[in-house]
Structure formats: structure tokens, C-alpha cells
Amino acid sequence: MPIVVNGQSFETDEEGYLTNRNDWNEDLAKEMAKVDNCALSDSHWEVINFLREYYDEYQIAPAVRVLTKAIGKKLGPDKGNSKYLYELFPYGPAKQACKYAGLPKPTGCV
Amino acid sequence: MANFETPALREYPVIPLIHAGVMAESKPYVAKPEHQEPLGFPGKLVDNWESVAVKKLGELVDESRALRVFLDTCVKCGSCTDKCHYYLGTSDPKNMPVARQDLLRSVYRRYYTLSGKLFPKLVGARDMTKEVLDEWYSYFHQCSQCRRCSVFCPYGIDTAEVSMAARDIMDAVGVGQKYSNEIIGKVFKIGNNLGLPEPALRNTLDGLEEDVKDATGVDVKFPLDEKGAEVLLITPSADFFAEPHIDGLIGYAKVFHQAGIRWTLSSHASEAANFSMFIGSHENMHKVAIRIREAALDLGIKRIVVGECGHAWRVAYSFWNTLIGPFNFLDPNYPVPQHICEMTYDLIQRGALTLDKSANDDKIVTYHDSCNVARATRMGTMPGGQFVIPRAVIKACVNKFHDMEPGSINESTFCCGGGGGLLTDDLMEIRVKGAQPRMQALKHVVDDHGVNYLAAICAICKTQFAKVLPYYKYPMDMIGSVHGLVSNAIQLGTKE
Questions:
Q1: Is residue B495 over pLDDT 70?
Q2: Residues in chain B closer than 8 A to A95 (CB atoms)
């Protein structure tokens, strides 16, 4: 089920996760969010960019605790918690934010 | 939140009238060749799949006397019909355990019983057709293999075994479930369900050391691959990654710290879960579990302790000895293997932990017995220890505890609705509906006692409840780890 952005088509899996991570660009992220009725704000981008940086280093999305801590350091302690992240990504920060960041969906009992 | 209706919670449990076929469309994503092949399964439906399926079924009943007896003995007494949480939550009669068994039994009769060979219509025997296969794929992925029905069956027929066999046959013909099979492949490749590589694991554990230091001022270690440690902790990788699981991991570390036990995690065996059990594959179950033996020998450890993971404890307690044993290199003075709750309980009995219950005074706690722990294992040396010990640990850490109603706990516990390889977003409807009986029992203790914390010892249960509680208008953070409570209560400073 491909996603079309700026006239170009990109392959995704059944749940809309990008098949090839290198295809990712910002417009693609915006388009994926639009499908979920979500408009990406600067706060969303803080999370998405952190996820991408972490993935580049570790080949996996960060644990929820690692993510909340990093966001807390960057944006202040009132935002370093899962409640804030769930407000931004109501389908779950790990899964929804990974999708917009072009990363594979976390698997397992999570 | 989704395009289905969340079942209502009532004053008292009601057995629903049947609605045939309402869940017929529920099915998980099918595994792709890249998920199938690393497990030794064909990538897609094989050409002569009917005969492959029938042959595989024959092999399974030859191998397992239990399975053959389960398929032969059902007398259709009806005792199981209202015992499955998926039937109670969906009202689809194919989710009655007897009907689920019959999906496989009908094919078994056709090919492996005299009456079925001669008079198939008279004895409900069916040919192995694509229609049957599709029905299997749908309804054998609406069973969490929780074994509640087997408790009430006068013959002890275990639908979990039937459902595992059906999934094994489906894998053999090339129709696997993406969720489980992709995950098993990740264990082979990286060492855990998440696909969490060693550097990321180390980074996560270092972060936890910082967090605990900030919160308590104490240097609690989270060691990885430490040779010569006494204990190897085998825990589900969700404990490294997800909320509220990680609070449990912090709890284990604090217990080890205060007890002065040298322990370690392993990057080679960084997973307790063994999803191969869900798909009924002995070869893959062995391949996943053997990593734990290898890690134990490599690190020279003396004890193996298993963290909060329901089906992992079943695999460890019931299968490890024959699967990856013998464990003659471990210290015989401790249970082999030992559950983290057993370890904490023993330490509490010996006065080795300082616990302040008032640290959890904001919580009124109830406990959810996870199905695999409750019905497939034991803890301690007394019958029912698997019910007593986790509760004893909780009660040592909290002042306010209330059990849910008797028909929904201990050996009669209701599954969380997400076990057995169903914990995936493509099965959200069955997960939410299957949680209804547990939510119904929870409602009573919430209404009567103000319960605001549901403790569990299984990674699947924790994730499932975090997801489904909001569908029933309860907060997602109501679910927590048993060792999350221990973590709050333990006073690290006083025993330094």
C-alpha cells in the first residue's frame, strides 16, 4: 500500500510503515501524519528528529524512558513524561512517532 | 478509537446470546517469505498444501498422545462453552472452546478415524479445503492459549494444545502469522523480540543507573555480560523498552542490590519470551531457548532467575529441563530456574529487604493472575504457590490490597485478552473484546473498594492492559509491574 508524496510513490507495509528507511523525507512524514488527521508541530518534530538520530546510532528506536528523558532535557521537565508524548502521539509515542520518522514498528510485547 | 463497539460492563457478568460469524473477518497479517524462511517454514502457500497439512496433522497426533486424546475424547458436554473470554466478549459461537477444537477435530476425523473415513457427514468430518484453512487462520488466532477452558473440561481437554497444533500445521503449509514469526526471527538475528542490539541495550541500562541514582542517591547497577556473576536474569525485552514494564526491571535491580547478589543480564540471551510456543514449533522453541543455556555457561553463572513474563515462566518451569537441560552446572540449593517473585519472596521471608508499605499508600491494588503462570506452572514448594507468592510480595509492599472475585482469579483467571501471539494492532478488536471479562471483574473492585492499580507479572498483560483499559474508561497507567511496587517500597539507604 504505497504512499504518494509530491507525485512520487513510496512503498509501505500493511500498517503504513515505510518499507525503505532511506526513502524518508519531511514531506513524507507530514503526509503520513495527515492520514491520521495529525498536523505536525515543532513539538512533534522534536520527537521525530530525536528518534531518527537515535536510530542512526543504535539501529533501534529508543526505549520510552530514554525518549522521555531526552525530551525532558531538551524541552523542560514538564514535558519529559509519557503523558506529554501521548498527547502528541495518541496512538502511542513509540509506534506512531516511529512511523512518521520512517522507522520500523517496534515489535515484541510493547 | 476504532470501528467496533467496546462491550459493556454490567452489574454482574452476563453470558451473551450467540451471534454466528461476527468475528469471521478477524485475522492477523500473514507472514511474508522473509518472516517464514528463517524459521524453516515455506515462504508462501505450497502447491500441494492439502496433503502437506493432512500429513503434518498425522505426524502431530503420532508425536503427541495428549493431542490425539484431546481430539478423540470430547463428548460435547458444553461445560467449556461459556468459559472463553473471547466467546464472552464477542458472542461468536466459534469462539466457544469446543467449536474451536472442532475446527481441527473435523479434519482429524476425516483422515484419521474409521468412521470419518467411511461416513464423514455423519460424524462431522470435513475435507481439508481452503475454506477450512481460512477458518483456521481466523479462529486459531482468536485463542490466546490461556487454558481456562481446560480447567472446566471434565476430560481436561486443552484447547491451547489444539490451537498450537493448528498454527504449526499452518506454518508447515506456508501460512504463518506475521507478528509472531517476525519476532522469532529477530531473536535468532539479534537476541530479543524487539531487535534491541547490544549497544542500545547497554545505553538503556546506563540510563537506568543514572535515573535510580538521581531518584535515590544510591548506585544501583544494571550489569550486562558480567562474567562470574552469581545470577543470570532472563527477562522479557519489553522490560528494557516499555512502560510500565521498566519499573519492574528497576525493582529487580534494587532487590539484587539490597540483597547483595551479584547478577547480570546477557546480550546474547536478552529475551525471556519464547513465541515459538505460541506457534507450536518445538524446533524453534529449542533454538530460542538454547541461547539462555549458552549465555549461562559462557558467563559462568550459578543461578538463573526469570523476570516478569507469563509464557516465559511456562517455558522455563515446564520445558527448560528437557529442552535445554540438564542444569547440573547450577547451584542445586536454589530452584532451577527461579522466578523473580520466588527470589524476592524468599528474601522478604529472611528479612533481607527493608520495605516501607506507606510508599505505595496512594495505591489501592488488585492482582491479575497471568494465565500461563496460573495454569501451567508453580512457584515455591506448595500447591498454589504461583497464586500465593506474587500476592505475598505485593502485600509486603502495599497497605491496601483487594482480590477480584474468586471466579476470575487463581486457576480461574481470565486472560488479559492479548496473550498467545495476539498482542498486535491488527487484532485490536478481538483484544479489546476479549478483555471484557477481566474488565468486568476489575469494575467490581474499582466500584466496591476504589482499586486504582492493577498489578501483573507478564509483559504481554502489561502492554495489553495499557492499551485496552482506556476502551473501558479506565486510565492506561492503572496497570503496573509487581516489582514496580517493590521498587517504590524498598528503602535502599537503610541497609547500606
A1: no
A2: 425
Interchain CB contact of A95 with B (< 8 Å): yes
Strands lying side by side in the sheet with B231-234? B263-264, B231-234, B303-306, B338-339
Active site residue A98: no
- For residue B136, the one-letter residue type is W
What are the structural domain ranges in chain B?
A: 42-175, 185-495
- B456-473: per-residue pLDDT in tens? 999 999 999 999 999 999
Give the right CATH number for A3-35 from 3.30.1420.10, 3.30.1050.10, 3.30.1360.30, 2.40.128.90.
3.30.1420.10
**pLDDT band of B493, cuts 50, 70, 90:** confident
Q: Which DSSP state fits B234?
A: E
Chain A closest CA to B207's CA: distance in Å?
Answer: 7
Backbone angles phi, psi at B2, to 5 degrees: -160, 170
Instruction: Fold for B42-175, please state it.
Output: Fumarate Reductase Iron-sulfur Protein; Chain B, domain 2 (1.10.1060)
pLDDT of residue A110: 92
What residue spans define the domains of chain A? Answer: 3-35, 42-100
The radius of gyration computed from the CA coordinates of chain B, to the nearest angstrom, equals 23
Strand stretches in A6-110, DSSP E: 8-10
Mean residue pLDDT of chain B comes to 97
- Residue A15 contacts B, CB cutoff 8 Å: yes
Q: For position A93, what pLDDT does the model report?
A: 86
As given in the structure block, the three cell numbers for residue B294 are 549458552
| Confidence check: pLDDT of B494 > 70 | no
Q: Give the CATH H-level superfamily of domain A42-100.
A: DsrC protein, C-terminal domain (1.10.10.370)
Label residue B496 by pLDDT band (50, 70, 90): very low
- For chains A and B, count residue pairs whose Cβ atoms are closer than 8 Å: 85
> Dihedral of the CA atoms B92, B98, B99, B101 (nearest 10)?
130
- Interchain contact B181–A (C-beta under 8 A): no
In terms of C-beta distances under 8 Å and separation of at least 24 residues, what long-range contacts does B10-14 make, across chains too?
A: B10/B440, B13/B88, B13/B437, B13/B440, B13/B441
Residue B2 has a pLDDT of: 60
Q: Work out the average pLDDT over B390-396.
A: 98
Dump pLDDT digits (tens) for B2-47. Answer: 689 999 999 999 999 999 999 999 999 999 999 999 999 999 999 9
- What does residue B333 show for φ and ψ, rounded to 5 degrees? -75, -10
